[in-house]
User: Fold Xanthine dehydrogenase accessory factor from Halobaculum gomorrense.
Amino acid sequence: MTGSTWSVPETEVVQSIRDSLDDRAAGATDPPDVLATVVGVEGNAYRRPGAKMLLSPDGEGVGAITAGCLEEDLASVAERIRETGTPEVVTYDLMDDDEDIWGLGVGCNGVIDVLLEPLTETYRPAVDAFAEGHDVAVATVLDGGDGPLARGDRAYYRPDDGTLRTPAGDPATDWPAGLTGAAGDLAGRGRGDTLVFDDGETTVEVFVDGIAAPTDLVVFGTGHDVGPVTELAARNDFRVTVVGFRGAVDPAERFPEADRTVTTSPGRLEEADGLRLDDRTHAVVMTHNFVDDRIVVETLLDAGVAYVGLMGPRERFEEMLEAFADEGRRFTEAELDPLYTPVGLDLGGGSPYQIAHSIVAEVLAVANDREPRHLKTREGPIHERVDLDAGDGDGGAAGGSPDAPTQ
Amino acid sequence: MTGSTWSVPETEVVQSIRDSLDDRAAGATDPPDVLATVVGVEGNAYRRPGAKMLLSPDGEGVGAITAGCLEEDLASVAERIRETGTPEVVTYDLMDDDEDIWGLGVGCNGVIDVLLEPLTETYRPAVDAFAEGHDVAVATVLDGGDGPLARGDRAYYRPDDGTLRTPAGDPATDWPAGLTGAAGDLAGRGRGDTLVFDDGETTVEVFVDGIAAPTDLVVFGTGHDVGPVTELAARNDFRVTVVGFRGAVDPAERFPEADRTVTTSPGRLEEADGLRLDDRTHAVVMTHNFVDDRIVVETLLDAGVAYVGLMGPRERFEEMLEAFADEGRRFTEAELDPLYTPVGLDLGGGSPYQIAHSIVAEVLAVANDREPRHLKTREGPIHERVDLDAGDGDGGAAGGSPDAPTQ
Assistant:
């Protein structure tokens, strides 16, 4: 497996799963791809629960579940699973055992539980939801206890639907009632967790893999400086739309990394096809044209977007506020809260890539609701714990592991 | 000009200048390339003074001096300069003039002074210093007044040498005595500024272009996760060395974006060929092997490097400190100051690229001596002012413009 297929964005891993399902649906008769998902992490692992890797019969893999420590062994487990057709949970114990590690040279730490399964159509609803821009949680039974569920059984929960469903789309009736609340929480945050349900008769262990829809980043502008921003944002799993205005260069041609491009005019953003401006939208405004920027900023703030990064010095925005005031438009402090100008984190770099790096770093921090300080100065675990009590309060969830740190 | 040549790292712009000089030295008889350098900025410009672009006769350019607003006009000025052979300073006034901008559709703001000159061997000492890893300041006369200096005359200052020299290497005697102090300051910080010297008889205007040697980033480890870190660091102008240990994959093969790769063992870092560990070195330690990491961290801290980012959760480093203590090695708080663990800024992302993005953002901030907060929360100008009083105190520098903001 090459480094380039290992470090693909998460969006591309999901796309590979979709492609694989499509190939089989179209009649491909190769042995199936095997999907490996991290379902549990303890200690010092590189990835979080929910990290996925798709292993093809030729030994290639797309995606990363460790920093390269287990990939060889996984390929041989995948081979076995292709033969048996049965999902397995494999536990890798890579904890440092004093100096033994020197001899082993394992090069990784932590205990990692990995679910390996032949990829089948039961996964289809997840990739469909992702493609349509909806959050989804994939629930997979790791241990069905004495009940009706077996390892590998699957159900889905979409917050926009509100019902736990089987892969065929029917309500999933055999599943623990307490699942939906935690599933909704995990889906929205794109986090995975193993939940244990005990109804007094049997114990069921379910891995819930929350797959959040990609965050929308809309970049306004078609200057050269838009290129590095678009490229870095796409690699960081944003769904990037580049918006160009009247007579500008064709954004589709210049920004191949963008998921979508739109050509419109500043006053017609709300009618523009495929341009969703709502409280999930993040936007960077860098047309370098004062009047265009002003109209776009007003439209975005009025639409209540989550983030507006405006390129330019503070004085330029102060001029913009004066121009708004001249038109009788005044913004409250709360209305200006999503506006970040000058755009970007204070990293001190001045090259095009350094500017783009600081912009995308800022959007990441805001989208993930983080204060962009050094991790070393942060108190507590790197990742917040999963809110196990979230949901409909029927008390089904009896436990679960906290989100593991990524490092 | 394509976006990809516009947004190249600064290191590649300097490399292009070198290649162009080499071609001519080898006998190429094409019309010369023209070097465009931003020598003054007022208002809302994208790049800082010192931003460079190399314009070739076929209309192509490497590097960026604006966000794409002037590049077409520059090509025609360059054509003129190829014919006359005479350097020119061209001033572009892109300030917003109320609504006129709408009609103009210029799409950029600010007043920008650009020096355009035929690229000649007088620039050779700058690219040589850069290639050898030395800071250098290139002093170019913009206006010689009534004195012996003429526009385009050039001198060099290397802090490691301490003497202002002509392109031929002789001491530069006709130049303002006050130049060396400011030149040393600007060279170390990689900043450019126009300085005005008035000795009572004549006024001389000199642009001093500080070109700092690239910052060294040494990455320890050869896992897949090293790939995105190496790639992003190289694009952000770090000179990247990847260090692999005994029997690991060949780093040269796996990390094509690295400037150098070294294979050694953890205990022999100080003897390793081409590995410079000093107070300018920044390092990321991500071997995923506890013992290797521990030896590397100790060596780096003892060498007094500027920054050590250690991958892994805080608890892992606490274990490491215990292991050090068991060997009788204790670190003071000051000794641990350069150590950042968990490595990276708190941006909340968990994918390989997101982790790498947060690591490189942290290294950028530390290398540039910045607190990584939102620029919108930062008081004062985005870039610190040039210390005009730096230097040998002979009072020659009579003025100069502050560093311009990049946005």
